[in-house]
């Protein structure tokens, strides 16, 4: 499945499947009509996706900790924070401007 956040409907707790990946990781239309579908999400799944989206949108880790009900911030950080290449490039650009 080739899902994006736009495919997630938090109001109706559903996920719309409208794309897939081929074996070369190219996004494409599903091969059959049955491949395009709407799947229900459990309340647990919807809640987990909301937290993941919040983390990606830059919500402070301590807020995520409270939302997730974790006693230890390290648990929250281990689950919801991941450094990607874009973040590393932004950090390097910031450091370059400070240190020249």
Task: Explain the overall architecture.
With 100 residues, the chain is α+β, with helices and mostly antiparallel strands. Helix content is 45%, strand content 14%. The protein has 4 helices and 5 strands. The strands form 2 sheets. Strands 1-2-5 form a 3-stranded antiparallel beta sheet, with no helix packed on it. A two-stranded antiparallel ribbon has the order 3-4. Strand 1 and strand 2 (14-17) form a beta hairpin. The radius of gyration is 18 Å and the shape is flat. The termini are far apart. The model has no long low-confidence stretch (mean pLDDT 83).
Specify the number of helices.
Answer: 4
The count of strands amounts to 5
Q: Quote the average pLDDT.
A: 83
Number of domains: 2
Could you estimate the helical fraction of the residues in percent? 40-55%
Uncertain segments of ≥5 residues (pLDDT<50)?
none
Enumerate the strands of the largest sheet in spatial order, edge to edge or round the barrel. 1-2-5
Principal-axes shape call: flat
Strand portion? 5-15%
Question: What profile does the largest beta sheet have?
Answer: 3 strands, antiparallel
For the terminal residues, how far apart are their CA atoms?
A: 44 Å
Overall structural class, as computed from helix and strand content, comes to alpha+beta
Radius of gyration, Cα only, in angstroms? Answer: 18 Å
The string of secondary-structure elements, in order, is: EEEEEHHHH
